[in-house]
Structure formats: structure tokens, C-alpha cells
Amino acid sequence: MAGDARGFYATLELDSSASAADIKSAYRRLAKEYHPDTGRVRDGGARFQQIGAAYEILGDAEKRADYDNLSEQADQADYSEKRRPLSPIRCGTCRQITAQPRYIIFWRVISVVLATTRTPVQGIFCSTCAAKESLKSTAITGLLGWWGFPWGPIWTVLEGVKNLFGGVQNKEHEEALLWHNALAFADAGKVPLSYALAERLLSAKNGEIRAGAAQLTTFYRSQGFKPTGTLKNNWINNPAQFLAKLLLLSMVPVALTAAIMYSDRSSPEASYGVASDLSEAYREPTANSLEAPADDYNASEPATPTCTRKVENGKILVGAKRLGEDGHILQISNGSSGDAIVKVRSTDTGNLLASFFVKQNSESQLSGIPDGSYKIQYAIGTQLAENCKSFTGMSAVNEFPNPESLTTTSEETFEGTLVKRKRLSYTLYAVPGGDVAPTSISPEEFESGT
Ligand SMILES: [Zn+2]
How far is the CA of 98 from the centre of ligand 1 (A)? Predict the structure, then answer.
């Protein structure tokens, strides 16, 4: 882990991987040692004040995260100038280099004899260590958090839910870490990794990072490097882990509720009374609401129904769920005489993988295409039909002649597997031309399986 911009960690004689408990005990020890009242220190309490100022920031989980972020950015500030080479960021837990680090705060809520404490576990994590810590903090909180009053249940729910969703994260801080790594891998001569990180940061929230990433990718392109690799995202939420955490977190209240309901059932009056009330209350509105809308349906139907929504350039019309988070990319420039619907079909089965919309004189891409062999078809039209997924009339329906075979290859580097994927690029012309001339197909073939 990197910097200490204003020397707060140094003031408390710690480094930036210190735990919340370390910080607290260092503060107590030093505050006692440098307290002006002891008469042993002759600096008029200056050191004591520094210690207090450091603790005010580092003793608060969120202020500490902001401070770590600031230190990170200060580290990169001397980029462009003659800076010392950066080294890639390591996970604060396992100390391995990680290509895609994140700064996360997990909370542990523990109640002991009605008193409840919250302890942050924070720092830079690799995805593996983050998943472990998330599970651990959830288990501790789920088992030990509930038993205090009133804060036990309140904090358990509030902080437990944060852990459930992977802890408290900050997008800008993540960008700063990735940008650090983009520069560090550049220093280390690992261009593909650096390039992949910089490409991802082209859409960063932070303007400076966005500009830096644009500069770096332009530089790589000018050096003749091709952006063939994208980084495999290691941070995708695992549904099984989510369920396990949910179970851990809700075990105690579920068990308690079950126990209470079981004891309730033994008194028949109470439970039967409730049941009959509910069923009557629900029956009436259902009967009414079924009749009401039936009349409205026949009211108005336009003669030639067209799409009433505004469909954005690049909108995926069919198959969004079949596209992955990673995958190959199909880039389309539409220079034709109308809007285009582009379809990607399996060469073997003819089944539609996905279709998307590219406005006239616009460019767009479909990403996340899984491995396979595909043919690419497109139709040109001006008016989308009622379903917003096809045209009311098509002026051209074509297919590119050569099936595209897409295969992922990968190269192992640190935690970040550099996955190499294809980026296909086609231009649709008003008049036939270009390197690949499309062949005309029937509208039926185009519409099949939509
Ligand atoms: Zn780790």
C-alpha cells in the first residue's frame, strides 16, 4: 500500500496497513506519552496536537479512506515529470501484486453483554481476499452483532447489508488505484496490462485520470500497439457467496422468529383470527381490479403501430442477457442511408445471439460476445415497428460474407489474467464499397428467430 501524504501514519508510528485497533492503541500510548501535563515534553504540546490531528482522521473509517485516497493521488502527481518508477499495488492482506485492486471498508459489528461495537477492516484488497473478508465480517456480524440494545440490531442490519454487497467502496478511489497500476505496469514494460487498464479508465469519473488514460492509449497506439487485450473482471459478484452471506446474516433473526411463531401456533384463537381476516381483505379488490382495465383495451389502436419510445444509438434490441461482461466486440460505423439493425447469428445453428441498433451516421459497438462462429447481418430502415425491435420497412437487408470465428486466448499475469479478445470492425455504406462487400439476403431470413 502506498503513501502517507501528510505524515499521519508516521505521526502515530504506524504504516498504512495498520488495523483500526492498532491505530487506537498507538494513539492512546502516544497521547499519554506526549501529554503537556506530564511536564516531560518541552515542545509546548505541539507533538500532542499532531497526534490528535492524525487520530482525528485515521480513527474514522471514512476519513481514513479519503486520506488514503489523497495519498494515492499525491503519489501519481509527479507523473509526467521525472518521477521515480512506480511499483504495482499489492493486496494489503496477501501482499500479492494485484492488477485490479480496490479500496474497501468492511464493518464488523460485535455485541458483548448489550454493548455493541463497530470495527472497520479497511485497505486495499485483491478480489480473492475481499471475498474472504466479506464472508468473515458477515459471519462475525451475523452471529455476534444482534445481541446488544438498541444498537446491536440496527448496526447489524445497516453494516451487514454493506458487507453483503461487497463492503463500502469508492469509485474514484478505485480509479486512482487502477491508474497507479496503469503507470506502474508501463514502468515495468508490461504494455498489454498497462494498455488494458488505461483503456478501461477512458470512461473514468475523475477528469484527470480520464485525460491521462487518453494520453497513454494514444501514445501506445502511436507506437503501433494494438488493443487486443481486455482485463478479465475478477470482481463479479458470486451469487452463491451472496446467498451464503445472506444466510449468515439472517440466521439469528430467522431462528428467533421461527421460535416465536412456533410458540404462537400453540394458541389457536390468535392464528385463526388473523388468517380469516386477511383472506377476506384480499378477495374483494382482486375481483374489481380484474374487470376495470378490460374495457380500456379496445379503446384505441393506431392503424400502423410504430415504436413510441426513443431508441438510443447502440441499444441492444434482443439478447442482452446472452452477452457477457467480458467478451469480443463488434464495432459498426453506419454510413448508410438510414438507421441500422445489426444481428449476430451463430453460423452453425442460425440462432440469433443478439441484435442492436445503430443510428444513421453514428458508430456503436456490441460488446460481450462469447466465443463462437458468427455471421453478421444488417437491415437498413427509417421507422421502427411497434415492438421497437424491427423496422416497418427495410430498404436493404444484407449479410457479410465471411463467418467470424471468435476465440478467447489468455495470458496469465499476476492476478489479472490478460484475456485477448477480438474487436471486429465493419462499416455500412450507402453505396456498396469498402473491403468487404455484403451479400443481399431475404427479409424472412433476417427476421427469423427474433
Ligand atoms: Zn489478496
Answer: 8
Per-domain boundaries in the chain: 8-59, 83-261, 316-447
Distance (angstroms) between ligand 1 centre and the Cα of 91 equals: 5
- Spacing, Cα 95 to ligand 1 middle (Å): 6
Helix (H, G, I), strand (E, B) or coil at 101: coil
H/E element, 103: strand 102-112
Ligand 1 centroid vs 138 CA: distance in angstroms?
18
CATH code matching the domain that covers 316-447, chosen among 3.40.50.150, 2.60.40.10, 1.10.10.10, 1.20.1250.20 = 2.60.40.10
Q: What is the distance in A from the centroid of ligand 1 to the CA of 327?
A: 26
Confidence of residue 14 (pLDDT cuts 50, 70, 90): very high
CA of 125 to the centre of ligand 1 (A): 6
CATH classification number, 8-59, choose in 1.10.10.60, 1.10.287.110, 2.40.40.20, 3.40.50.720: 1.10.287.110
Q: What's the mean pLDDT in 306-335?
A: 86
Write down the pTM of the prediction: 0.59
Q: Confirm if 145 and 52 have CB atoms less than 8 A apart.
A: no
- Measured in Å, residue 219 CA sits from the centre of ligand 1 at 32
Distance 199 CA to ligand 1 centre (A): 24
- Starting at the edge strand that comes first in sequence, how are the strands of the sheet with 115-125 ordered? 115-125, 102-112, 168-169
Distance 165 CA to ligand 1 centre (A): 18
H helices present in 305-421, as ranges: none
Calculate how far, in angstroms, residue 106's C-alpha sits from the geometric centre of ligand 1.
15
Q: Ligand 1 center to residue 142 CA distance, Å? A: 24
Q: Give CA–CA dist 59/429, Å, rounded.
A: 62
Please name the residues in contact with 101: beta carbons below 8 A apart, sequence gap of 6 or more. Answer: 89, 91, 124, 125, 126, 174, 177, 178, 181
Distance of alpha carbon 219 from alpha carbon 227, whole angstroms:
12
Q: Residue 274 pLDDT more than 50? A: no
Judged by DSSP in three states, 249 sits in helix
Amino acid at residue number 45 = G
